[in-house]
Amino acid sequence: MAFDQSSSKKITRGTLTRDALISVILYALPVVALVIWFTYTGETPWKNPVRDYAHVSAPAFLKFLEPIFKNLKSWGFIALALGLGVLEFALGLYDNKWTPTERKIDIVCFLAPKFLVPPVVAYFSLTLLPTLLPGFANVFSWVPFWGGFFLIAVADDLTQYWYHRLHHQIPFMWRFHRTHHSAPYMGMAMASRQNFIYTIFFSQTYLTATLIYLGLGYPALFVTAIKSLITMTAHSSIAWDKPFYKYRILHPIAWVLERLISTPATHHAHHADSADDGIGNYKGNFGNMFFLWDVIFGTGLITRQYPSSYGIKFYKEEEWYAQFLWPIFKSKKEGSELAANGPEVGDEVETTPELVSA
């Protein structure tokens, strides 16, 4: 079953307005759920928020998972990524496409943010937030874990959906996201392959830091860890979802999974270099953790098949510094849209749907 394929449709201002209104409703759902819950139970924990900092530790039923998620957020994520990368190579899934140029880009994009982002986030968390929101530290610590988890999962991932979608639908913003789509292969390294500006201004980073400051630390930790697992495996060249499509008994599970979260099949379609085969959907399938947003906004395409090729058709194999540090450093490759006098976005390859008046 396929949903509307956005690559065949123009995005009108009316469509954007409708989707923005739907987004407001979605953002409000966790808050409405909390209000209904507290009304039903008669509890008023916000009247005495200091009595119990609920998120100083994980809730009892998740205590046994706490060390896993704590480590996954730090060194565990790097270890898992490296392990997954080694497995991909052992299985020969890169198909000899990891050239020296691609290798440099992937390694730089994977390692550099580990040094660039922490100081920015530390400044934002320790200096800007207390200045902008004085007295609000741990103000929402009374929110139950499930409520915080629901709130952060929606706020974080829906915001990232829009951040991602706009980088495809606004030509100027596309250049900052182009690096993520330039590789002619899929693999673990793709999850972090981004231009540094896209990474520094990544919406999830600041939203998560703000929610932690407000007292939702543990829900944020769990959401971030789960999201990291989903996005990494969705980019991986290991097609873990294929058994769900192969065996009829697993089809009901597949139906739910592919509409709820990003799977290799749905996200690989987003990285296809063409939509002509009815499988690729590089102008849709924007979901990161949740594919549900694509279902709701009609930007999703589900085929349970994998594209035959990935990347950008007119890719010039630009230098690692041009892809990672554009616009500070330009490419020297003739005809590249990252070059000093390169073509305008869309002159060579159709990367974004046209934004038109309603």
From TrEMBL:
<feature type="transmembrane region" description="Helical">
    <location>
        <begin position="115"/>
        <end position="137"/>
    </location>
</feature>
<keyword id="KW-0443">Lipid metabolism</keyword>
<dbReference type="GO" id="GO:0006643">
    <property type="term" value="P:membrane lipid metabolic process"/>
</dbReference>
<feature type="region of interest" description="Disordered">
    <location>
        <begin position="338"/>
        <end position="358"/>
    </location>
</feature>
<keyword id="KW-0812">Transmembrane</keyword>
<dbReference type="GO" id="GO:0008610">
    <property type="term" value="P:lipid biosynthetic process"/>
</dbReference>
<dbReference type="GO" id="GO:0016020">
    <property type="term" value="C:membrane"/>
</dbReference>
<dbReference type="InterPro" id="IPR051689">
    <property type="entry name" value="Sterol_desaturase/TMEM195"/>
</dbReference>
<keyword id="KW-0472">Membrane</keyword>
<keyword id="KW-0560">Oxidoreductase</keyword>
<dbReference type="InterPro" id="IPR006694">
    <property type="entry name" value="Fatty_acid_hydroxylase"/>
</dbReference>
<feature type="transmembrane region" description="Helical">
    <location>
        <begin position="75"/>
        <end position="94"/>
    </location>
</feature>
<protein>
    <submittedName>
        <fullName>Sterol desaturase</fullName>
    </submittedName>
</protein>
<dbReference type="GO" id="GO:0005506">
    <property type="term" value="F:iron ion binding"/>
</dbReference>
<feature type="transmembrane region" description="Helical">
    <location>
        <begin position="196"/>
        <end position="214"/>
    </location>
</feature>
<feature type="transmembrane region" description="Helical">
    <location>
        <begin position="143"/>
        <end position="163"/>
    </location>
</feature>
<dbReference type="Pfam" id="PF04116">
    <property type="entry name" value="FA_hydroxylase"/>
</dbReference>
<feature type="domain" description="Fatty acid hydroxylase">
    <location>
        <begin position="150"/>
        <end position="299"/>
    </location>
</feature>
<dbReference type="GO" id="GO:0050479">
    <property type="term" value="F:glyceryl-ether monooxygenase activity"/>
</dbReference>
<dbReference type="GO" id="GO:0012505">
    <property type="term" value="C:endomembrane system"/>
</dbReference>
<feature type="transmembrane region" description="Helical">
    <location>
        <begin position="20"/>
        <end position="40"/>
    </location>
</feature>
<keyword id="KW-1133">Transmembrane helix</keyword>
